[in-house]
Fold these 2 entries.
Entry 1:
Amino acid sequence: MLLTHLQSGLVQRGAKLFGSLLIYMVLASCGGGGGGGGAVTPAPTPTPPPGNGGDGDGGDGGDGGGLTGDDARRAVLRDIAEDIILPALQDFDTQAATLQTATETLVASPTDTAALTAAREAWEAAMSSWQRNEVLQVGPAGRSTNPDMVVGGQDFRDFVYSWPVTLDTCALESAALNSAAVNGNTSINITGLGAIEHLLYTDVPPAACADQPSTAQRMEHVQRLADRTGVVATSLLNRWDPAMGDFVEQWSAAGDTSTLYAAPQEALDALSVALFYVERQAKDRKIAFTTGIGATGLTCTNASSCPEFLESPLSSQSGANIRTNVQVFRDLFTGVSDGMGINDLLEGIDRGELATELVEQLDLVLDSINDIESGAGFDEAVRNVADRTDCVNASGNNSGIPVCVLHGLISDAMDTFRGPIVSALGLAIPQSSAGDND
Amino acid sequence: MHGINLPIEDTNRRLQNWLTEPRDISAIAIYRILFGGLMCFGALRFILNGWIERLYIEPSFHFSYWGFEWVQVPGPTGLYLLFGGIAVSAFMFAIGLFYRLSIITFWLLFTYAELMDVTNYLNHYYFTSLLAFILCFLSPHRSWSVDAWLRPTLRGSTLPAWQTYWIRFQVGILYFYVGWAKFEPDWLLHAQPLNIWLPPLSGLPVLGPFLEFPWVHLCFSWFAFLFDVTIIGFMLWRRARPWAFAVILVFHFFTHLFFNIGLFPVIMVFSVLIFFDADWPRRLIAFVRRGTIRSSPRPPIQYRRPLSAGLAVFIACYCCLQALLPLRHWLYPGTVLWNEQGMRFSWRVMLREKSGSLQYRLHTLGGEVAIISPHRYLNEEQYREMVGQPDLILQLAHHIRDEYNAKGFGPVKIYADALLSLNGRPLQPMIDPLADLAQISGGLGKADWITAPPDSPPPKQTRLRISAR
């Protein structure tokens, strides 16, 4: 009994000692903190317009007026949907229809040069339009399965354009020879805009292919491919159209009436992940691989660069594609048609300097592409890269071979996005859902 | 001589008595059941979520722990067997079937799994491994177990007190260091990274709108700090214990709500049950049966099992190691949040928001230069983790060096362009861009190829407010 009491006393004394120690340490910490930098002086907050739903908290964001919190995020999402995503889909639907019409004319006169030129121009317009949507793979356009699954994904993208999946040109020629139907069961490596480019921009099938369809057969297949693309374009548009599937409302009412997005942050996360297209595809595949600085084994068909990786080598549209990708990235930040963009979210938390920095970097990228395109063009510039080391140095120093400088400029912009901007807005990066954290 | 030795002997005897005092086994038995059940659930969750594919099968490269390079990721079949084995062994020690074998098996398999890739390191996985290790030496299967049911001679209603104290120490040291890791300017003065993490959660009901306010972030930062450094003290104080436990429940409910930290809150809640009186399960059962908490049958006092000197020394060494390991970052210049030297195994939980970018520049012997993206070897999860951890950047550089040397391009030189944003600060280089990583050895020494930490404070982000156009 005495022993038990003694032990109990020991435990209690130990507990008191430990507790006292903790309290002491807490007090010490209260007085001892503060090393390593003072407070940041916040930049002036833009004066909000009077009386627009503010809750008058008088806190850190100003003194009333404007939208706050999730209402602000939803407002940005709505503007992005209505001003950027929906118009991009509408435009592609229109361009796809124009392409259908042009290919119908071509089928009627398969050897008519004017008809062929018109079809090619229609294809280039459709491709240019689609390149905006390449960066907007949110909702139905996105994937429905992991690892790149997106909320509301219905896999529309690959039916329109399957790059960087390599085209099976011989299978495509076989399909043309056999008048194969083009539908949802058609393999993505013989359909979509890439397949149309191959048939429109090559006069004859590759010699290595066993099947050698005639020009008429090839153009008829172009029409089937264009028809299918038009159907997919319209279906995708209908998913978003407020009068039909109304994904605009799912997107814009995230965390409110949306049944797919539990919070506006989820929609912003989806957008953030989609924006990484500019890093992973535009920068790494379209530029780093082609210029050869991506070190894809250090052996390419050219002495230094690797033009075999160009995105649209037959139509010489690779540079235009990159410009469109970057332009829509910029539009998402700045907003268009006087609507809001992601920059408004940054300015709304007093991080406007990040918005300014990114837009300046993107402008440099666009200027660089325009310079390249106004010269020999991106594709030719890639073929002319003579020294891989010079290219790497140009990318690192932002001076030298223009097409390599372009790589460095996009790197700078994406570093700003991937680093402080993703942090500041708490945005997601691709494939960030696996596993736990702590 | 007697006059000198007597106090020491007396102290030894008291210590021995204190450590070997018989205590009701039920609390530790319940601990075993809860821990095993949770681990079984966790392993099945890991499998069913497809994380074996995402984290171990998809990546072509895995990061090793220093000294554990021999741990390799098995093939898909081996991985499923490994995680299946974790689930089965956890279930077995939960029900107390072949306890000693099952807990040792669990510890080995779980620890092996955790050592397979550094980018998957989590503090609560480390804690799980330590708890399992401790349980290998304890005897919670003497009651409420299949073993005790099958072997009457095994049955016991008490265990020596040191078994409880050892677990308490481990739980206490965790909370203690989790709290003190927050004793730094970013957390306490600038409320970072909560200032970044909480606003996107403003859609949560009731509490959500408050999460936009910077003063709330500061309150949460200080509360979390004070909670972590004091809660064990309150749990040791009998009168405060129920209230402290209630606070723990609330605190971890919110950590579960706010962050994607999986089973961590559950583990942290169940862990502190060890601070309740040893007979709490019996009293709870009695309360449920008879409606009174005072009618619990006291188990018969069994004989004292002496604590062997060897085991006592081993446990003392273990405790010293656990107490000192989290302090090792003081041996390195700079701040651990930046250089990460001493970050792991130190209970530095949810302390930093790091984001950035990395590319390597490869210089071949022939004078060629190439840019190599880590994405060639890693998936996005690995990339996100490694981009802020210099030792992993070095490790991948060595892998690339070996690959290109083997291809005949070498000896190659490798430089890293690693830009990092810490807690929302502007990007700045984390690795000396002139340091040839191919020539630098890994290890525990001071890494002068890591740049100095940022000297500016993190930015303060205000409440989101925009002017509708």
Entry 2:
Amino acid sequence: MTDDITPEIAVETTQERAPLNVAGAMPHIVSDDTTDDLKILLGEFEGPLDLLLHLIRQEHVSIYDIPVARITDEYLRYLRVMQEMDIAVAGDFLVMAATLIELKTKMLLPRDPTAPPEEEEDPRAELVNQLLEYQKYKAAAQMLWSRATVEQAVFKRAEIETDKNNPEVAVGLFDLLKVFQDILARHKEEKLLEIEREEISMAEMLERLRNMVMSSGELNLRVFFERARSRRELVLAFLSVLELVRTTEVKLFQRETFGDIIARSA
Amino acid sequence: MASNEETVNQEPLDEAALNEEASRELAAMVAEAEQTSGATEAEGDDDAPLSAPQSGAERAAVIEALIFVSDEPLSVKTIADVLKEDKQVIGEAVAALAQEFNARRGGLQLREVAGGWQFATWPEYHEHVRAFLKTRPSAKLTIASLETLAVIAYRQPVTVPEILEIRGVQSPSSIKTLLDKKLIVAKGRKETVGRPMMYGTSKEFLMQFGLKDLSELPSVEDFHDLSGGS
């Protein structure tokens, strides 16, 4: 019995199953007056049960006594409009269409007169229960929505900076001094011949540091200090690090306690 | 020569002497730093027991301070552990503190959320707070995601096929969104055909929906009448 009705929708089963929302992207579409005498407003339906609930409400019928034939026709009409508008109809909607058609045919069949009346179950019972159950969670979703809205109006304290959540403040001035001291001590051991050379200025040193940090994104300060060829250059190097930290052009951090200090462009 | 020594701070004349001086200063600073850090370490090692709050008022004050600095809602158990006091004593103290604090009806509330206590602004003042912070309400969940979340919240632990049964529609992208937003967590596999994954709500869910715990959710059966089917 169902066979002669199903082909009408079976054509569409080849359509992709993936999309969840039938009219998700386009909440309100009014169909073209020229192709359809009736203006049909397509809402956003979250699934076949949602659409069914909408139709039941629209037709002012009781959920406990659904006029299956009428609702089925309405439902299929909606699906057809969706298809005409090139809205991909999710497989779940087609499954419901099949269920409705099956239900419609069952309602048309004459009841078995020999069966005792108490054993007769309304073929719509399962669908009604499903709708009632879905309706509860739909309402629960609305409740969650309003809770979230209120909660979004409640502001909590912002995170407090601690050593744990911000490694960049973990390097103290003294850690920096220590590295510098190490380098200085090593330089002391190296007895170098003083050769006249061009003096590097503070500005040049700042530029050198900037370039070194920029070029690699990160710079191990040990490497930077070791490039200095004299005590004076070292002092300038040290000062330039302090300067760039002060102007927040670079940030210093350590990967581990007592590890090398890394400069990173801020 | 004497004048030379006096002006040494203004202009670097003798490079060698200057470097020597800088080096000496740095050495002294490093030594000092080591001393101080050594001292603090020693103090930390001692782990001197904090004196317990002397009075009820002091206890309340300490609790207030701890809740304020905590990034997450602070549980009574954690406070009791820090103060080394009985959980019940602390529980009563926090409740009393909250009552007293909230009676003030200032800009802040002390509230219970996700199993802990937290300071937060009252929602009434959100417009001013938003204007100051220059923020807007962030993107809310779609209806599909909210429905899926509602089913998970009330039916947890629940599997994807069970959610499909109730919603009548597949919801893989909703599940993914909820997982990404850390509102739900996987709760293991159900020992049934196909061993589907079970999902439940997270602590983040309680926080984002301002719930003390799951029992604070209104009963789903109560929605029966509200939704007014016919």
